[in-house]
Amino acid sequence: MTNLWTSVKVGDSVLNNRLVMAPMTRSRALDSGVPGPLAAEYYAQRATMGLIITEGTQPSAQGQGYPATPGIYTAEQVDGWRKVIDAVHDQGGKIFIQLMHVGRIAHPDNLPNHEQAVAPSAIAPGEEIFTKQGMQEIPEPRELTKSEIAQTVNDYRHAAAMAIEAGADGVEIHGANGYLIHQFLGANSNQRADEYGGSIANRIRFAIEVTQAVVEEIGPERTGFRISPLNLLGGVNEGEQAAELYHVLVSQLNDFHLAYLHMMHVGHEDILNQVRADWDGPLMVNRANRPLEKLTVDLDNHVADLVSVGNYALANPDLVARLKNKIPLNKPNPETIYVNNGAVGYTDYPTAD
Question: By its UniProt entry, which PANTHER family does this protein fall under (predicted)?
Fold first, then answer.
């Protein structure tokens, strides 16, 4: 694992190592969308990671899907995130805020004013979602109008500016895992008949417009983008042209010279190799269910430049030290991942010493 511990430049940030904390929803924010009282401690505990990418953070009230997730669009939320970011920086860490609009993966009980969720098309995902009333079927969303699409692009722009105001080193645009941008990419979730639906060029249009807006606002060196080709989360399927779609999308994203591209890899090696060929900048790969002994397989094969991990970082605040010293890892408790029970399952995982 020695190649994990070399420095790497990501945008205008120099990372001490190539191990990244992947974004993980923890559902511990206040009702106002302000990060919870233990968030600063939680992230600062993990500041030895080369880079921390925060939990998905909604760029607008309409972008919220789950209970108790944070936002980055009000002054109060900026103040809350500033405490988190300062705590990470005080420990020598780097941190990007992930901007996540969930689109149709929402329920009125989780949204301010009990609004109907929005999406590229009025098509329900056919899944359930956790609400304060328990698990419920996700209802049919409302199709975004073109003027609302333009407003949503501006919401991302505003949220990126707010993230930098809070002191973040950058933002990651979440274009993966069944959420809004991914829904536009999906052949089954995007049935629009206008310039945002149908052809590959049309289905990637929203992703490119969001990226353009964020880059204009904060610069490409502080902007990352996440994809998850053929990951069927949220019921999104890019269809038979998935490989071609990601070839076109990644090639156009490459023209922005972003800080990095982050790929959630679910087993399609041909697409991973294609993405590597299409992408000139730092590539971060998160492999689903990757065993520890294969942690650096993509670095070893020169396919990736950085490795992102989720549960390993969640359960091991000192993951870097444990890996360097071959110390056994804590195992995450699945019962406390999304349950707000104070420090339990959040900031109480022990360090090796």
Answer: NADH OXIDOREDUCTASE-RELATED (PTHR22893), NADPH DEHYDROGENASE 2-RELATED (PTHR22893:SF91)
